[in-house]
Amino acid sequence: MKKRWWHNKTAYQIYPKSFLDSNGDGIGDLRGIIEKLDYLKELGIGIVWISPVYQSPFVDQGYDISDYYAIDPAFGTMEDMEELLAEAKKRDIAIVMDLVVNHCSDQHEWFQKALKDPFGPYGAYFYIREGKDGRPPCNWRAYFGGSVWEPLPGYDNLFYLHMFAKEQPDLNWENPKLRQEIYKMIRWWLEKGVAGFRIDAIINIKKDLRFSDFPADREDGMCAGTTMLACAHGILDFLTEMKEEAFAPYHAFTIGELFDFDQQELKRYIGEEGCFESIFDFAPHLLGGSDHGWYNRKPVTMDQFRDAVFESKAISQEIGMMANIIENHDEPRGVSRYLPAEGQTERGKKLLAGISLMSFGLPFLYQGQEIGMTNKMFHSIQEVDDISTLDEYQTAQEHGYSNDEALVLVAQMSRDNARTPMQWNGELHGGFTTGIPWLPVNENYHQIRVDEQERQENSVLNFYKKLIALRTDAVYGETVVYGRQEPFLPDQPDFTGFYRKGRENTLLVLANIRETPRTIEVPLAIKKVLLDNCSTGHKAEETKETAAGSPVCMQGFQFLVLEVF
Ligand code: TEU
Ligand code: CA
Fold first, then answer.
1. What is the per-residue pLDDT across 136-189, written as a single tens digit (0 to 9) for each?
2. Ligand 1 centre from 365 Cα, in Å?
3. Is the pTM higher than 0.85?
4. Alpha carbon 314 to chain centroid, angstroms
5. What architecture does CATH give domain 11-102+176-379+422-464?
6. Partners of 241 in beta bridges
7. In this structure, which residue's CA is closest to atom 4 in ligand 1?
8. Which atom of ligand 1 is nearest to the CA of 163?
9. Which ligand is nearest to the CA of 24?
10. The CATH number, out of the four listed (2.40.128.630, 2.60.40.1180, 3.40.50.720, 3.10.129.10), of the domain defined by the range 482-564
11. For the chain, counts of helices (H) and of strands (E)
């Protein structure tokens, strides 16, 4: 694998609205991020992706952009952004912005002009089609519910397409003029000094241009948008052009958010010839999903998590470096979702961190993950902000669940779980704001908070620091970053084990994912214990040498990284 500057970094996603509010209006902002750059540096972060900070009406929390060249006043000014770039640079932190170009906001100038003249040049920036006698052109369902087609206000029998909310009209990538507008905008930001982009929902830019019906998959008579995507061919032409015209001249770091792509084509997405530098590895996060909606999801075990990781790495590590996550702003908190109830402890959180960060890939933390933040308690649907949760709540009700039942069902997956404010300290609202937070802070902010974990040597936060530091370690860094990941005892229940085989050394990662102790026979001699989530920090414990075939006694939820030979 050809080495790239970002391979040994650790990345961190900031959800700006909930990170730190510098002026007391209850909304996190760019100055809040600037204030915490030293915190991120201290953690060992080298790349920061910031969810959208562009001008937006916030129908989908900034993923509906009304001006790509402006910072939303809620977040600050363009000067703040420039200062953030300069301050990050001083600390050797690369700033990655969110690139949301499958759609824009219905308040964007382009869409406003299209509304005035649907058959004019700006109408051609969108998908505007005639309906069938006032009914939508076809039966595709939007991700946030309802038809992808919305009547074009003021016209009879004209509709525009939106894969997400109706306030997020899809941009017509078939139009070369639109594509050039996008490339121009990308270059403009790269000129400003951003290192690259996380590329939102990008698989959606290629449609099946027949715009025809597919068999219905729910009682509403519609089919999932993804059914259509499977029949849309040729996306790589767009992506290659975007790379050549916008990213490559600036050597931009690009990481794609792709769910439904042809795995056979991974080589064309990442790796040396790929159109992106990396993509997120969502393999574990797709587990348990249902075509019917969140209410119908199945819980996921850590063994399934392990199998999904192994399956994915077996293919991807030959091709390029995908990014490992346990959560993001669209997913529940990883510790609440994947750890068994009895393992949702500090020890369990370190174990999950260890599995994620020791796996082959670019570690991508989501804000608050480093202190083990958990899902939120929802007392009523009125507390929910997220557009997707509200839609799924309705779907659950339509399938016969009472209000209370529907709330419990969607609460597990709600995107608001991860969007509650960052828990900095024990002050009111966790130190996130001196005002009223836009979304209430998690009730557990007294127990789970940065300031305390900075003080405690054995905190989750300090365990993350150790894991992150291993990537640049003089002796083990090469193995942690490039070593081959190979399963160890892959059939043991409630257990995850794997090797990382590097040029200089071999590491063995062991995780006992149950309360009861177990004994593992390690076929190779153990040279050293690099990490132990049960260690009390005494130096004497850390150098144990054993002969090949020795048993290792593991406590409940113990996680170990051993050097073996
Ligand atoms: O998400 C794209 C996406 O497909 C999903 O994650 C999913 O449809 C959604 O979370 C359902 O709950 C990206 C962004 O990450 C997400 O926040 C935006 O809402 C979406 O695109 C639209 O821009
Ligand atoms: Ca603010």
1. 999 999 999 999 999 999 999 999 999 999 999 999 999 999 999 999 999 999
2. 18
3. yes
4. 21
5. Alpha-Beta Barrel (3.20)
6. none
7. 201
8. 22
9. 2
10. 2.60.40.1180
11. 16, 22
